[in-house]
Amino acid sequence: MDFLGSYGSDDDKYFVRQALPVEPPTRRITEDTVPQDGFEFIHKSRLEELSSVPPYLLSSVQKKMYWKRVVAQFFEKRAKKLQANRAMLIRKFPLEIDLPGKDEKKWCKLCLGSKLYNEIYKNEPCSEKVVAYFPVLSIVSHLQQDMVKSVLKYLYRWFLAINMNESIACWVYSLFACLERPVGERCQKFIEAFKVAIRKRMKACDDESEGKQLHLILAILDENFSIN
Questions:
Q1: Are 75 and 224 in contact (CB under 8 A)?
Q2: GO terms for biological process (predicted)?
Q3: Distance of alpha carbon 133 from alpha carbon 120, whole angstroms
Q4: Helices 185-204, 208-224: crossing angle, 10 deg rounding
Q5: CA 93 to CA 74: how far, in whole Å?
Q6: Each residue of 63-116: pLDDT tens digit?
Q7: 187: closest CA among 162, 140, 220, 152?
Q8: For the whole prediction, is pTM greater than 0.90?
Q9: Which sign does the torsion angle of CA 137, 141, 142, 146 carry?
Q10: What pLDDT, in 10s, does the model give residues 165-185?
Q11: Which of 20, 103, 169, 179 has its CA at 20 to 30 Å from residue 2's CA atom?
């Protein structure tokens, strides 16, 4: 009797929450979210509980949730800082190259270099050696939103052609950090299609390095660009 009596109301609520069939959230839930219903309260509570437990005590499923949360939070901080300081970054990191406009093939050479370009555009090979650029601030901070969206679509097509190469992942990560939110319906559909393609590739991927890139990008899209 004393053993049963040692469980307080907080413990009862915890086990009830774990046993309830919980509907998936219809918007992104964080520790700062004001719950609008019981399900959102449960999702928020689970996040708070997860953050209070040392990572080494988490189950494998909880570790995956914890990792996704850490990745998403780090990305969110970087994205907010980048967008909030864009004007200053443009002054501090002036554009030193001519951007290709909306020429997909020229962007491919710029982002991926001639070697990967030739893997993608086999029928239109590049005869000269072109070294790829990293997504540095002197480039990405100068891109307007329509150009950010266009290059993301190019990257998506290149991903479909040659899978999640590290260079593609770097540019995808950086440009999604530049993408202002909330996004429009058309852009959201594109993001959902990107997520579907990543999940499909994950099932077939047997390369550890690419697998990490896929998990990273998917975690960011799931946590930071879900439909509200």
A1: yes
A2: spliceosomal snRNP assembly
A3: 17
A4: 150
A5: 23
A6: 677 778 888 888 898 899 999 999 999 999 999 999 999 999 999 999 999 999
A7: 152
A8: no
A9: positive
A10: 999 999 999 999 999 999 999
A11: 20
